[in-house]
Amino acid sequence: MSLGVRLEGLSVAYGAARVLEATDLELPAGSFTALLGPSGCGKSTVLGAVAGFVRPTAGRVTAGSAPVRAPGPERGVVFQHYALFPWRTARGNVEFALKRLGLPRPERRRRALAALAEVGLAEGAEKYPAQLSGGMQQRVALARALAAEPEVLLMDEPFGALDALTRTRMQDLLRELWRRRGTTVLFVTHDIDEALALAERVVVLGGAPGRVLADHTVPAGPPDAALRSLIAHHLGAE
Ligand SMILES: Nc1ncnc2c1ncn2[C@@H]1O[C@H](COP(=O)(O)OP(=O)(O)OP(=O)(O)O)[C@@H](O)[C@H]1O
């Protein structure tokens, strides 16, 4: 299951600082979009508005047919810093996140174990975060988001703190999960190659206040050098 997301005339200001100005963006249900742009251009703000953490000063965000007013379980979020509770096991962390869904304990356990297995961490379910590598901790954070069975997955530089090899493995895992589940994905990164490796579409955000500078479909198949240099040009044109 997946939901489409629509941003219409979205403006966000933090006090006097205008971060986004009248931004329109439509994410079709089941699509995988990378949001690329230089530091501070408002990528996390877009993601936060879809997640329901950030209030628009103008415009609106809808997920499916419902206006976004607050965070909700149908929109899962994964951050760069996984923010796991150190005193809970991997399973405990995932189960805890399911509490707000009001699921009975056996169902929480079943879903937590299934999600950990889905991210390849069945063996690590009873380990504590300190016993897990960074990549494994990020798998727990991904399992925590997936266990709620979100229809939209919002990811804010989730692999930014991982070493290159682990990062590639996590990218492969995410592509596979997306293919299997068909969840709508919005993936924030400032890495062009990561955006091109993962997404079907790359949206470049930039300017001050931020707006959509470019919107490219990524063709299937081997890396497209011409597209890469075009996107680099948009980023450099900042
Ligand atoms: N809660 C806040 N209060 C005040 N200013 C904020 C707040 N959150 C973000 N900003 C400012 O808004 C601008 C956009 O921030 P945002 O985090 O959305 O950008 P970003 O493109 O995701 O950046 P990065 O790539 O560095 O994470 C920045 O100038 C930032 O300092």
UniProtKB/TrEMBL annotation:
It holds the Pfam family ABC_tran. InterPro entries: AAA+_ATPase, ABC_transporter-like_ATP-bd, ABC_transporter-like_CS, ABC_transporter_ATP-bind, P-loop_NTPase. Keywords: ATP-binding, Cell membrane, Membrane, Nucleotide-binding, Translocase, Transport. It comes from the Bacteria. One of its GO terms (molecular function) is ATP binding. Residues 5-232 form the ABC transporter domain. The keyword rRNA-binding does not apply. This is ABC transporter ATP-binding protein. It comes from Streptomyces subrutilus.
